[in-house]
Design brief:
The complex is a heterotrimer of chains A (639), B (222) and C (152). Chain A is an alpha/beta fold. Chain A has 26 helices and 19 strands. Chain A folds into five domains: 106 residues, Glutaredoxin; 204 residues, NADH-ubiquinone oxidoreductase 51kDa subunit (Rossmann fold, 3-Layer(aba) Sandwich), CATH 3.40.50; 87 residues, Roll (Ubiquitin-like (UB roll)), CATH 3.10.20; 89 residues, NADH-ubiquinone oxidoreductase 51kDa subunit, iron-sulphur binding domain (de novo design (two linked rop proteins)), CATH 1.20.1440.230; 80 residues, 2-Layer Sandwich (Alpha-Beta Plaits), CATH 3.30.70.20. A five-stranded mixed sheet of chain A has the order 12-11-15-13-14. Chain A has a four-stranded mixed sheet with strand order 2-1-3-4, with helices on one face. In chain A, helix 8 runs antiparallel to helix 9. Chain B has 222 residues and is of the alpha+beta class. Helix content of chain B is 31%, strand content 16%. Chain B contains seven helices and seven strands. Chain B starts with a strand and ends with a helix. About 13% of the residues of chain B have low confidence. In chain C, strand 3 and strand 4 form a beta hairpin. In chain C, helix 1 crosses helix 3 and helix 6 packs across helix 7. The radius of gyration of chain C is 18 Å and the shape is elongated. Classes of the chains: A alpha/beta (639), B alpha+beta (222), C alpha+beta (152). The interface between A and C is large, with 59 and 45 residues. The complex binds flavin mononucleotide, iron/sulfur cluster (SF4) (5 copies) and FE2/S2 (inorganic) cluster (FES) (3 copies). The site of one iron/sulfur cluster (SF4) has 14 residues of chain A, from helix 19 and helix 21.
């Protein structure tokens, strides 16, 4: 902010808003360089620096706005640079491309074709929203990222920011705000899908001198980064939502619990809070309305279970983030024993929209039981990975194939995992399922916070289940027997399966432990921990049976059950496999068939991946006794 | 305090509000096994052996009776089919850690033999010793370290050497309350829970010998 | 040592010497020293009047705290789900092979620490690792070796 004038009335805010909007030319050229985590990893920091230099060299600083923004969504093709107002979308931009962009696009108004997305017909697509990845999305919460510099409150206000807050605190009673949120049907985006309005109401009700509202930005689901995308890119949207919630519930203090692994999100939030305090939009008697509110940021020190509501509140109190054993809702006795309302980042970010556009608008999006949009982190073996926001009710097939572009390397689809470690897998036959809290739940998975991990046919479902249990075994707090020891023993069963030493009745054992955990574990972590295993047994029982009875891994993943060979008929002797083998287990002369020495092979899979996809001479034997037979025959041949 | 009327296995009982279902049920003559519950300590809810089924308006739910306060009109079933089935599995898990667990209990619930992989560390993490020492004795000699399956109970030997001998002969020592007896088994000289020194390093996420030694030092001498 | 404790006092005061600030204080200390030395924990225990057993409970509960010195260079391999299905385990094996240490360990010369993390938010690049501040997308054995050699 250039000069800070403290705002002391709603009309002060209105004149600031008008001033900002008036001072803006909607046709002004702006360059949005993504600095989300994916693009940063692709060196978008350097791209931004180059833009700074190139713009000043070209004398364009005064005419072109340059911003480092949050994630645009299409992380797969990062660094992403979008030129407004025409929304020209350049992908995979390297620092070397910057001068050309400045010269061609910013100076001469033409496009750099080679940096555009190429459609299926091979023709370049200029406008971001015409790219298939974006075309089917409905960006309500996440769409402003490219238009907002997260460090500029003016940008946010210019897009209508804080008008919802002002509307709520000047024209609505707290009850009316709650009623609106209730009416909208907004459900929690952090996991369980609990109706937000009902939770607000329950927190507002019990008599208390102090209440708290809290943002859950712990984002523990490994493989999901939606909340990070919002907080880094548009922190004010979450803050505004939290303030509205504070007003409605009767809280004067809010907390944002962010994992410390998100330093940029923390910095951007802290910066935003400072600006708000200076402006008088945060603190005592906001805009002279009598509403006082402040926000404290609390960093999480790394524990998945701390995302659970009572554990999170313990962590804010500076205690070990263990779930509370008591059967009392946090809406009655939460942080410091006071009524507290915890919602996910995305849940809060939806609130200003609902207040501004109304519950009816919100209800017009989505399905009967699930309203609005949901942001997913579409990742794994899918072509277009990134953050996508779609209306509730879209089918998984649309998301994975229309938006995601299908499976990488054109392999076969096998399953998609939603709901993270508490969720489950969904097979091919169910791809027409709609994303909807209740539909996903009845399929044995859940919406979760929005991780959507796509798996191709080279994935072993037993191995994936084992992966989640390993994660949970480490992340469980270890307090209660069903979870701590239940996960431990389940894991032993899966280890046996992947090692080819499973017992015939192991599936029964899984069943016994799992049903008990679901009802007896102390908190949500233990209660949902069996889900990934149970859902994969439900849909991929064959694979479990193969591991148990045939000692075979159809996915070709479990090291103990596979071996590598090279098909002499197919091998063209290019030597690629030999180069990547870390243990020199492959030998062969140029242009002659190569050979794997199984005594040396550590099954790293490198050769399998390296062999040209047209050739595919490296093959996996996927059954233990076949491997033994093969090894014996090899030995005999060598003698 | 007002009174609450509920049913325990079909029999109506009236108890004071705030009473836990476990106490109400025991008062009514029901037998519910417990491990981590000890009178005078805050309920902990860790062993889950005390689970019971609660029916209200046709909907049933499994809860830990040691920390579920009584409510008007609920039906508590302490040995329903579900409860028996779950308790059996919980006992089976406990037995894997603590092979000396009460045989009668195993028989009563028909716990199958040899399905679980033995984890003979005896301590079942009921936390009684830790809570007793900090909540009641206010000595803070014992503590948990680590999380998940790596969670352990350790003692802080410097403090232990100072305060445990005082406490030891008296009725107040933690070892009197340890349900598994692991405390007495391992060390009866200085601090009851100061077991195998190696144990200190285990819970921490380092596997390297050098690092483990450093962590052990950090924890052990504290 | 005195200098270190003075730095710790500053951190404690910045958080209002408040017991509730314990985790935030320890996070700042961890950032300052890259680990949590015993003397410092004892000092914090006294200053905030929190028993030492509780401090150890807390510092061994949260993954971010380290009770042993960390290397000057940190290598973090992502073990998140997205990276897992794209071969994170093999990447971890390769990194471990190059550095000669297992995950969770620090090399004897305190040059490298190898750790696993869950999701770096760069799933599109998976399997991904982060070497100090640099992201490496599915690096080969050679790439990792080159990176390690370039570290002082
Ligand atoms: C083990 C565990 C971990 C959780 N982690 C998160 C998390 O990282 N982020 C989140 O928003 N909710 C998480 N939750 C859900 C929260 O407990 C809580 O339901 C949610 O934050 C409420 O917000 P919502 O209603 O807006 O979704 C977790 C729950 C459990 C049981
Ligand atoms: S269910 Fe797991 S995470 Fe939750 S309290 Fe029990 S051990 Fe801890
Ligand atoms: S799997 Fe790995 S170790 Fe085995 S032959 Fe192929 S490249 Fe070599
Ligand atoms: S990469 Fe494939 S084609 Fe080339 S030598 Fe190896 S097995 Fe033969
Ligand atoms: S014997 Fe030692 S550890 Fe046990 S309660 Fe007494 S002081 Fe605490
Ligand atoms: S040592 Fe005994 S009292 Fe202490 S946690 Fe273990 S089993 Fe419980
Ligand atoms: S991080 Fe740049 S598009 Fe996602
Ligand atoms: S006695 Fe109730 S959980 Fe242990
Ligand atoms: S899962 Fe590895 S970066 Fe997200």
């Amino acid at each position: 902010m250039s000069e800070i004038i403290k705002l002391s009335s709603p009309s002060d805010f209105e004149s600031l808003r008008e001033k900002i909007i008036k001072g803006r030319d909607p046709n002004r050229t702006a360059v949005a360089v993504c600095s989300g985590p994916g693009c940063l990893a692709y060196a978008s920091g350097k791209v931004f620096k180059r833009f700074e230099e190139a713009l000043s060299a070209a004398g364009l600083e005064g005419e072109v706005t340059l911003a480092q923004t949050g994630c645009h969504g299409f992380c797969e093709r990062g660094p992403s640079v979008v030129i407004l107002p025409d929304e020209i979308c350049y992908l995979r931009v390297s620092p070397e491309d910057v001068n050309e962009i400045v010269e061609t696009t910013l100076k001469n108004g033409a496009v750099v074709e080679r940096l555009l997305y190429k459609g299926e017909d091979g023709l370049p697509i200029q406008k971001e929203s015409d790219i298939p990845f974006y075309k089917y999305q409905q960006k309500v919460v996440f769409g402003d990222n490219k238009r907002i510099d997260p460090r500029s409150i003016e940008d946010y206000i210019a897009r209508g920011g804080y008008t919802a807050l002002v509307k709520a605190i000047t024209t609505m009673t707290p009850e009316a705000v709650i009623a609106e949120v209730k009416d909208s049907g907004l459900r929690g985006r952090g996991g369980g899908g609990f109706p937000a309005g009902a939770k607000w109401e329950a927190t507002a009700k019990p008599p208390a001198d102090t209440r708290y509202v809290i943002v859950n930005a712990d984002e523990g689901d490994p493989g999901a980064y939606m909340d990070r995308g919002i907080l880094e890119g548009n922190p004010h949207s979450v803050i505004e939502g939290l303030m509205i919630g504070g007003y409605a519930i009767g809280a004067n203090e809010g907390y944002i619990y962010v994992r410390q692994e998100y330093p940029l999100a923390i910095d951007n939030v802290l910066y935003a809070l400072d600006v708000l305090r200076e402006l008088g939009l945060l603190g005592e008697n906001i805009l002279g309305t009598g509403f006082s509110f402040d926000i404290i940021v609390h960093k999480g020190a790394g524990a998945f279970v701390s995302g659970e509501s009572s554990a999170l509140m313990s962590a804010i109190e500076g205690r070990v983030g263990e779930p509370r054993p008591k059967y009392i809702r946090t809406s009655i006795s939460g942080l410091r024993g006071k009524p507290s309302c915890l919602n996910n980042v995305e849940t809060w970010a939806n609130v200003p929209l609902i207040i501004n556009k109304g519950a009816n608008w919100f209800k017009s999006i989505g399905t009967e039981g699930s309203k609005g949009t949901k942001i997913f982190s579409l990742v794994g073996n899918v072509k277009n990975t990134g953050l996508v926001e779609v209306p509730m009710g879209m089918t998984l097939r649309q998301i994975i194939f229309d938006i995601g572009g299908g499976i990488r390397d054109d392999k076969e689809f096998k399953a998609v995992q939603t709901g993270g470690p508490s969720g489950g897998v969904i097979p091919e036959e169910m791809l027409d399922l709609h994303v909807d809290y209740d539909e996903l739940y009845s399929a044995g998975s859940m919406m979760g916070s929005g991780g959507m991990i796509v798996m191709d046919k080279d994935t072993c479902m037993v191995n994936v289940a084992k992966y989640f249990l390993e994660f949970l075994s480490d992340e469980s707090c270890g307090k209660c027997v069903p979870c701590r020891d239940g996960i431990d023993q389940l894991l032993e069963v899966l280890r046996r399966m992947t090692a080819g030493t499973a017992r015939p009745d192991d599936l029964d054992l899984i069943e016994d432990i799992s049903v008990m955990m679901k009802e007896c574990a102390l908190c949500g972590l233990g209660q949902s921990a069996p889900n990934p295993v149970l859902s994969s047994i439900k849909y991929f029982k064959d694979e479990y049976v193969a591991h148990i009875n045939d000692k075979s891994c159809p996915g070709g993943v479990c090291k103990a059950l596979i071996a590598y060979t090279i098909d002499v008929e197919k091998c063209i002797g290019c030597g690629k496999c030999m180069k990547v083998c870390p243990v020199n287990a492959i030998s062969g002369d140029k242009k002659k068939p190569h050979k794997v020495n199984n005594a040396l092979c550590v099954k790293c899979d490198s050769c399998y991946q390296e062999c040209p996809s047209k050739v595919q001479a490296v093959t996996k034997i996927r059954q233990a006794d076949v491997i033994t037979a093969f090894a014996t025959s090899e030995e005999a041949a060598n003698e | 305090m007002s009174d609450i009327t509920l049913k325990i296995n079909g029999t109506e009982v009236t108890v004071e509000a705030g009473t836990m279902v476990l106490d109400a049920a025991r008062k009514a003559g029901a037998e519910i096994p417990t491990l981590c519950n000890l009178e005078g300590l805050e309920p902990f809810g860790a062993c889950r052996l005390c689970v019971v089924e609660i029916v209200r308006g046709g909907r049933s739910r499994i809860v830990a009776s040691c920390l579920y306060p009584v409510e008007n009109g609920i039906d508590v079933l302490t040995e329903s089919e579900k409860v028996v089935r779950y308790r059996r599995t919980i006992l089976e898990l406990l037995k894997a850690r603590w092979p000396l667990i009460d045989k009668k209990l195993l028989e009563k619930y028909g716990v199958p033999a040899d399905r679980m992989v033995p984890r003979d560390n005896f301590c079942i993490m009921c936390g009684i010793c830790v809570r007793h020492c900090s909540e009641r004795r206010k000595e803070n000699v014992l503590g948990f370290v680590g999380r998940g399956i790596e969670r352990q109970v350790v003692s802080y030997t410097v403090r232990a050497k100072k305060v445990c001998p005082e406490c030891f002969d008296k009725e107040l020592s933690c070892l009197r309350f340890c349900p598994t007896g692991v405390i007495v088994n391992d060390c009866a000289t200085v601090c009851p829970a100061s077991r195998d020194e190696e144990a200190f390093a285990k819970p921490v996420r380092v596997r390297d010998d050098d690092n483990a030694a450093a962590v052990k030092k950090s924890l052990g001498d504290a | 040592m005195l200098g270190r404790l003075a730095a710790v006092d500053k951190i404690i005061e910045a958080h209002g010497s408040d017991r509730e600030g314990l985790i935030q204080i320890l996070l700042d200390i961890q950032r300052e020293f890259r680990w949590l030395p015993k003397e410092i924990l004892e000092h914090v225990s006294k200053r905030l009047d929190v028993p030492i057993n509780y401090i150890y409970n807390l510092t061994t509960f949260y993954a971010h705290f380290s009770l042993v010195p960390k290397g000057r260079h940190s290598m973090h391999v992502c073990m998140g789900t997205a990276c897992h299905v794209r071969g994170a385990e093999r990447l971890l094996d390769r990194t471990s092979q190059v550095l000669g240490i297992k995950p969770g360990q620090t090399s004897r010369d305190e040059k490298f620490s190898l750790d696993t993390v869950n999701c770096l938010g760069a799933c599109a690049l998976g399997p991904v690792m982060i070497a100090d501040d640099e992201y490496l997308s599915n690096p080969t054995l050679e790439d990792i070796r080159r990176k390690a050699d370039s570290c002082e």
